[in-house]
Specification:
The complex is a heterodimer of chains A (496) and B (712). Chain A is an alpha+beta fold. Chain A is built from 13 helices and 19 strands. Chain A has 4 domains: 152 residues, MutS, DNA mismatch repair protein, domain I; 60 residues, Orthogonal Bundle (DNA polymerase, domain 1); 98 residues, DNA polymerase, Y-family, little finger domain (Dna Ligase, domain 1); 92 residues, no CATH class. A 6-stranded antiparallel barrel of chain A has the order 14-15-16-17-18-19. In chain A, strands 8-11-9-10 form a 4-stranded antiparallel β-sheet. Chain A has a 3-stranded mixed β-sheet with strand order 2-1-3. In chain A, helix 5 crosses helix 10 and helix 11 packs antiparallel against helix 12. Chain B has 712 residues and is of the alpha/beta class. Chain B is 46% helix and 11% strand. In chain B, helix 7 packs across helix 16. Chain B starts with 21 loop residues before the first helix and ends with a helix. In chain B, 41% of the residues are buried. The chains are: A alpha+beta (496), B alpha/beta (712). Chains A and B meet through strand 16 and strand 17 of A and helix 7, helix 8 and helix 19 of B.
């Protein structure tokens, strides 16, 4: 599939367009436009042959990566019809429109709309709608289509419609197709009556499988590009809008709908995405996250409203879509007698701060699996839902840990009996502290797999000490005691 | 010097937990000045024989250095129960050891392979004579206090409570709590360090083993690993410092060590007495059966040299007390042949040198030719039980095995185990996975390791693969893999080695269930069994015997001739013509390419030629340049050499045209020319066979050559 480039030169628009690729050292045609096809050119033909037939050709280098990107973008754009879209090969898009039909009048209308809009975007499309992906694939590529380039297969028509199509329509590898043709099995209908047993040893199970898939005897799921999210509301606008206020109004209406839906299901949203489909085919999205599930329209709406300024309307927005990407169970809340929503927790404030300041700037601590105190806790964003699985019990409570841990342990001078009894006195920032009570040592070795050179210096003996004023500190000595070198002591944290 | 003995030690026979070999632990303990060490693995006695023999070696070395106190290993085990806290169990005498083994057998027989289920209810019956040390849990637990009191009452006088300085910051408190608990429950406190490795450097490997066991990578293991490297053997002075508030706890370790005086060497193995002896002693029975066999083998009367040989052998066997062994093997062979459809079986190896075995129909070499060397099989000096390998038809070997189980009972017969150890490749794979190396890096490193080699990887090889040997992770991985090589991984059953005892086998060594149905395995492998002089009978399978039987069956079916191994026509010329043409695909022993290329050159014409053929196409003779001289002499291109000293060596070497090919010939040369006695010659043979491992073949070489030169 190629997109006709809109170039400035009118003359070039009349020349047939072909793309050229380098395959195994030869230059061959990768794709041809309808005009070139009419004149007898086909993909796979060598450039020299093509030029021999038609000296005047508009040559463009094949750009498979660019084509793939364009196809992916197109597939995303097809998300306006159904969230279940997926790329197929180098030139096709799967759309699973099960359940989307109520949004439009009929399958035919959806397909015609799709082809028409695709044409507006510069793509020549052939669309087929059928009960099974296999059948749709075969019909879209090999069947004779009416002028509208759309064919709808009813439930019972599948078998009949597939019969006259060539066997290549079964999505089989080229060698198998060749073999089948050599045996005289040229059309799909030829395979209908055949016993399966002789086919398998010769061609493998692929033939039988593809046939069953096409006829609906075997299930074939399509993996969609976007994750399946059933919670989605959308609004098609009669006239394209482009002002922030209009977007906000639309958002408000959609939010009310979605929150009512979530509340009925007993769910709250953790991540929301608001998408605006522009007339030129681009999609603008903004997303927010919450630290706790919520279905309060005012709260969520406010979070999204703050980001509306990021949406560039372009020539206008014609479709608004709001969907909940992540949901969690949330019990219904009783409103207060004055019907005001009160949320006793700090969660809404946290959400606002996080969404306004940036998710990375509002943090909380989660426990990590490590003996070393500085690695035993990690700061993560409040909105990050991945760490909710960590429960309070995951914090190791067996050994007491200071409330506050210094990022860089402070060196101190210590008087302590050798080799590893608790200190008697220490001096921190020139202030001496006499130790009244102490506990320890708790020996923690540095992680040898990260620091293999540590050696005997790689252990820390921690002591919990209380000074004469009742303040509690967490000190450690680095390395085992050695008579010839004075030991290095540090202050690592404070207890309450 | 403060005396201390470590009583809770986990060696690498607790698979994937202990990080030191029992030998390393014993040596380190001796080095630190301990007088003994206890090896207590979890629910197993698999490593105790190694610990015991290594401790004996250490004691011998110390004695050589003048230390008379010596060094002991204390045998014991750590019992993990299903429904109560764990105990360390140290038997004080032989009967207590039997009880411990019995307890473990009960636990293992009721559990699937690899597990042991013992309950608190099993303990009282087996507790007499044991020293029990109760191991406290990590956190203070009211249930534990109940158990402590119960144990204090039930096992007063032989139950202790273990205290450990764990370097977790709260040790002073914890030890105080334990001491108070000990007082309340009537259990004296004993000091221990719950050792996992012999030196602090090994802690790294122990972490890796823990990761292999938990199936996670080292970067994810986190708190599942130990926080420090303190669980190693410590000298008495250090333990005294850690327990300076509780000096009694240290003294109690010595007290316990003194009470545990059980020595593995005192285990007396008893051969099964055979039934059906009709009131004869085993010696009389053996003679009786041999006489029967003589009548069968030599219906026209036994030749003189054979008679002399038989008498000599019987005398030696009686002196060493091995009659039951021969009787047992004979029983098994007799059973196999006596079945409705007899199983083809045959003994081989060094047993073929024995005239008794020939008479008992265990082997088929007639000693009348005078070429048997009994010392190869059994010798005075080598006080080991003989090793008779009997091959059975491989398809029907299971019947023989089940017969042994049925006849002797599962409580008296069990298969020997093999300890499967880590080899370089497996070690690299496991360590590499734990250290986070990608699987293709590990595969590439493994690819450079040749076969079963356990050598390390030289740096240039690593560089050739495109990896940087100085990368810390990679260097650490290689070093750890090297350390891990040779560690036991799990126990598996030996191919066919049976241990059969007179009394209950489970009392001698714990028996466990194997993966295969209806198989029970003991925990010791053949080296352990040898060290303790326990009889092992090898019941092996040979596919060719099945082939032969099927061949005989087909012949009987199609041609009506009923042949057996004994009655097959010998020396048929057509067969030798085929052999000389090297048309030998499918023929036992001579179908390899090397053999097929040698056959047309050697042109065997009779059976002995085939014997030579098989013996000559081996790396030894090829490297030792014996093949070409033999071929030349055979073709007549070279005359047979002149034998010095009145052709003393002629009878030894004439059959092989002056080229020594067989171990027996080497022994005879030593005996005839070097005036070695039979047993000395046997020692020479063994040192030649193991010259790669031990280097003492040189000692013999000097002596042999010296003698031969002396005599001209």
């Amino acid at each position: 599939m190629h997109r006709r480039q809109r170039s400035g030169k009118p003359a070039s628009e009349t020349l047939p367009l072909v793309t050229v690729a380098d395959i195994a050292g030869r230059r061959v045609l990768a794709a041809v436009d309808p005009a070139a096809a009419l004149l007898g050119l086909a993909p796979g033909m060598s450039l020299a042959d093509a030029r021999a037939r038609l000296p005047d050709l508009w040559l463009v280098d094949a750009d498979p990566a660019g084509d793939a990107k364009a196809l992916a973008a197109f597939s995303d754009w097809c998300g306006r019809f159904t969230p279940w879209t997926s790329v197929d090969g180098a030139d096709g898009v799967w759309l699973d429109i099960t359940g989307c039909v109520p949004l439009v009048e009929s399958e035919a209308a959806l397909a015609l709309d799709l082809v028409a809009r695709a044409a507006q975007l510069g793509f020549t499309a052939r669309a087929a709608v059928a009960d099974t992906p296999g059948a749709a694939w075969a019909v879209a590529r090999y069947a004779e289509l009416p002028a509208t380039s759309v064919r709808i297969l009813g439930g019972s028509e599948t078998r009949m419609a597939l019969a006259p199509l060539p066997v290549a329509g079964l999505r089989l590898p080229a060698e198998i197709v060749q073999d089948l043709k050599r045996l005289g099995l040229k059309q799909i209908g030829d395979l209908y009556g055949m016993a399966r047993a002789p086919l398998a040893p010769r061609f493998g199970e692929a033939v039988a499988r593809r046939l069953d898939q096409a006829l609906g005897l075997l299930e074939e799921p399509i993996s969609p590009r976007q994750p399946i999210v059933p919670r989605l509301v959308r609004r098609i606008l009669a006239e394209p809008i482009s002002t922030p206020e209009a977007i906000e109004i639309g958002l408000e209406q959609l939010m009310a709908l979605l929150c009512r839906q979530l509340e009925e299901e007993g769910l709250g949203a953790r991540q929301l995405e608001f998408a605006c489909f522009r007339v030129d085919g681009r999609v603008e999205r903004i997303a927010i996250g919450t630290s706790r599930p919520s279905h309060a329209p005012a709260h969520l709406g406010r979070l999204l409203a703050e980001k509306i300024c990021q949406i560039a309307p372009g020539f206008g927005i014609e479709l608004l879509q709001l969907r909940a990407l992540a949901v969690e169970p949330l019990a219904a809340q009783q409103l207060g007698l004055d019907a005001k929503e009160t949320d006793g927790t700090v969660a809404p404030l946290v959400d606002r701060l996080a969404n306004r300041l940036g998710a990375r700037n509002v943090l909380r601590l989660v426990p990590e699996n490590s003996h070393l105190p500085e690695r035993a806790a990690r700061a993560v964003s409040v909105l990050d839902g991945r760490h909710d699985a960590k429960r309070p019990q995951d914090w190791p409570v067996a050994r007491p840990r200071p409330i506050r841990l210094l990022a860089y342990p402070d060196p101190i001078e210590v008087m302590a009996p050798v080799p590893d009894d608790p200190p008697l006195m220490f001096r921190w920032r020139r202030v001496p502290h006499r130790v009244r009570r102490a506990e320890g040592p708790e020996r923690i070795a540095l992680e040898w797999w990260r620091e293999p050179e540590a050696g005997t210096d790689g252990i820390r003996d921690y002591y919990r000490v209380e000074d004469e004023a009742g303040r509690r500190f967490w000190l450690y000595r680095r390395g085992l005691y050695r008579p010839e070198t004075p030991p290095a002591w540090f202050l690592h944290g404070f207890f309450a | 010097m403060i005396d201390y003995v470590e009583l809770t030690v986990t060696s690498n026979f607790t698979f994937l937990e202990g990080a030191s070999h029992p030998g390393e632990l014993a040596r380190q303990a001796a080095r630190l000045g301990h007088k003994a060490v206890a090896i207590t693995d979890r629910n197993t006695l698999g490593g105790v024989v190694r610990a015991w023999s290594e401790a004996n070696d250490v004691a011998a070395e110390l004695k050589a250095d003048g230390e008379e106190d010596g060094f002991r290993s204390i045998i014991g085990c750590r019992l993990d129960f299903r429904d109560r806290p764990s105990l360390v169990c140290l038997p004080t005498d032989k009967q207590a050891y039997h009880r411990l083994s019995r307890l473990l057998t009960i636990g293992k027989r009721r559990a699937p392979k690899g597990e042991c289920w013992i309950d608190a209810a099993d303990l009282p019956d087996h507790a007499e004579g044991q020293i029990l040390i109760l191991l406290p849990p990590d956190e203070a637990d009211p249930d534990f206090e109940l158990w402590a009191r119960k144990d204090g009452q039930a096992f007063a006088g032989s139950c202790y409570l273990a205290g450990q300085h764990r370097y977790r910051g709260d040790d002073a408190q914890r030890l105080a709590w334990l001491a108070a608990l000990a007082d309340r429950a009537g259990l004296p406190l004993v000091a221990t360090n719950d050792v996992l490795y012999h030196a602090p450097e090994r802690r790294v490997l122990q972490d890796v083993l823990a990761c292999v066991r938990l199936k996670c990578a080292i970067d994810q293991a986190g708190r599942q690993l130990e926080a420090h490297a303190e669980r190693h053997l410590k000298p008495g002075s250090e333990m005294a410092r850690l327990f300076h508030h509780y000096p009694d706890a240290l003294a109690r370790t010595i007290e316990i060590a003194n009470r545990c005086r059980f020595d593995m060497g005192s285990l007396k193995y008893e051969y099964p007495d055979e039934e059906g002896l009709d009131g004869r002693t085993v010696a009389q029975e053996l003679v009786h059966r041999v006489e029967d066999g003589i009548r069968f083998r030599y219906p026209d009367g036994v030749p003189d040299n054979v008679r002399k040989q038989i008498d000599k052998e019987i005398l030696l066997v009686a002196e060493l007390g091995y009659e039951p062994y021969f009787l047992t093997v004979h029983d098994i062979v007799r059973y196999a042949r006596g079945l409705e459809k007899p199983i083809l079986c045959q003994g081989r190896g060094s047993a073929a040198n024995s005239a008794i075995c020939y008479c008992l129909r265990i082997t088929e070499i007639d000693p009348v030719s005078g070429n048997c060397l009994f010392e190869r099989f059994l010798s005075q000096e080598r006080r080991e039980p003989p090793d008779i390998d009997v091959d059975f038809e491989h398809e029907r070997r299971e019947e023989v095995i089940q017969h042994i189980y049925a006849h002797y009972g599962r409580h008296r017969a069990g298969l020997a185990a093999t300890v499967i150890c880590y080899r370089m490749r497996a070690a690299l794979r496991d360590v590499g996975k734990v250290m986070g190396l990608s699987s293709d890096a590990v595969a590439a490193l493994n690819g450079t390791i040749w076969g079963w080699s356990n050598q390390g990887l030289p740096e240039n090889r690593v560089r050739e693969l495109g990896l940087d040997p100085n990368d810390p992770r990679l260097a650490m991985t290689l070093m750890l893999a090297q350390e891990l090589t040779g560690f036991p991984r799990h126990l598996s059953q030996h191919v066919g080695g049976f241990v059969i005892t007179k009394g209950p086998l489970g009392d001698l060594v714990p028996i466990s269930n194997a993966a295969m149905v209806d198989r029970t395995v003991v925990e010791w492998d053949k080296d352990d069994l040898d060290a303790l002089r326990i009889l092992k009978i090898d019941v092996l399978a040979l596919g060719m015997l099945t082939c032969l039987r099927k061949g005989f069956d087909l012949i009987r079916e199609h041609f009506g001739d009923a042949w057996t191994i004994a009655t097959v026509p010998q020396e048929v010329p057509g067969v030798y013509e085929m052999i000389q043409r090297a048309d030998t695909i499918g023929v036992f022993q001579i179908e390899s390419r090397a053999q097929m290329s040698m056959l047309p050159r050697l042109k065997p014409q009779n059976f002995y030629d085939l014997v030579i053929e098989v013996a000559i196409v081996r790396p030894g003779p090829i490297q030792g340049d014996m093949v070409h001289p033999y071929l030349r002499r055979r073709d007549g291109k070279e005359p047979e050499p002149k034998y010095p000293c009145n052709e003393e060596l002629k009878p030894v070497l004439s059959k092989t045209l002056g080229v020594p090919l067989f171990q027996e010939q080497a022994m005879r040369i030593a005996m005839v020319a070097g005036e070695f006695t039979g047993s000395e010659a046997d020692k020479l043979r063994r040192s030649m066979a193991t010259f790669r491992k031990n280097g003492d073949v040189d000692k013999f070489k000097d002596r042999l050559v010296g003698r031969m030169i002396d005599r001209g």
